[in-house]
Amino acid sequence: MFNTNRFLLTLIILLISGQAFSQTDPAAKSILDKVSSTYSSYKTIVADFTLRGENDVEKSKFNEKGRVYLVPGTGNYKIETSQHALISDGKTQWSVLTDLGEVQITDVNPNDKSLNPTNIFYFYRSGYSMKKLKDAVVGGQSLYAIELRPNDKSQNISRIVMRINKSDLMIFDATVADKNGNTYTYSLTNIETNKTFSPGIFQFYKHNYPGIEVVDLR
């Protein structure tokens, strides 16, 4: 069964993709280091995304489109789709479920070591094996392809394949497979950097969601 919050958070994590490495391909690490350096140099990032999901067990599929806003290194992010939103100001996270008519409020855990928007610039550096796959060409664009697998086998994510545009080191797409039989493919388009965001973009305002129920889990 698809978990909306999980795939939205995974999208943020994949926008930019230490300790000892296990079975690390130096070529793969070098590319990801360059991608990380490129993205972390931006003051802000905004992009449209398309998400295609499939579940092999349930034989189900879905498609979702949305937009993501991010301030690297601050914990400030916002992801919007037609039915859901995730908003964080670095201290508080709001999970807006418009289809259920509620918003869930939680504290951001600064000690959280799992994959999350606070460690997106370096998550791959620890706990993952990685290797460079065969390059690809899609629509005239030449792409690197890199596979990552978590060393901790208790993680739900089993495999990530990222494809990166060689010309600008931007993420082209990523495919995430988990142990529940879900496969998510994220494609990023219309990526813009260093834009000025409106004040309050990383806050939740109830008047923007008439009739929504607030569930404070802090």
Report the strand count: 13
CATH class of the domain at 4-126 and 191-216: Mainly Beta
CATH-assigned homologous superfamily of the domain at 4-126 and 191-216: Lipoprotein localisation LolA/LolB/LppX
CATH architecture of the domain at 4-126 and 191-216: Clam
Tell me the Rg in angstroms: 17 Å
Helix-strand sequence? HHEEEEEEEEEEEEE
- What class, by secondary structure content? mainly beta
Helical amount: 10-25%
Span of the ends, CA to CA: 26 Å
User: Mean pLDDT, rounded to whole units?
Assistant: 81
The shape, in one word, is: globular
According to CATH, the fold-level topology of the domain at 4-126 and 191-216 is outer membrane lipoprotein receptor (LolB), chain A
- Uncertain runs: 16-22, 113-118
The number of helical runs is 2
Largest sheet: 13 strands, mixed
Strand content: 35-45%
Notes on the structure:
The chain is mainly beta. It has a domain of about 150 residues: Lipoprotein localisation LolA/LolB/LppX (outer membrane lipoprotein receptor (LolB), chain A, Clam), CATH 2.50.20. It is built from two helices and 13 strands. The radius of gyration is 17 Å and the shape is globular.
Concise summary:
By secondary structure, the chain is mostly beta strands. It has helices at residues 4-15, 26-40; strands at residues 45-55, 60-71, 76-81, 84-89, 92-97, 102-107, 128-132, 136-138, 141-150, 157-165, 171-178, 182-193, 213-216.
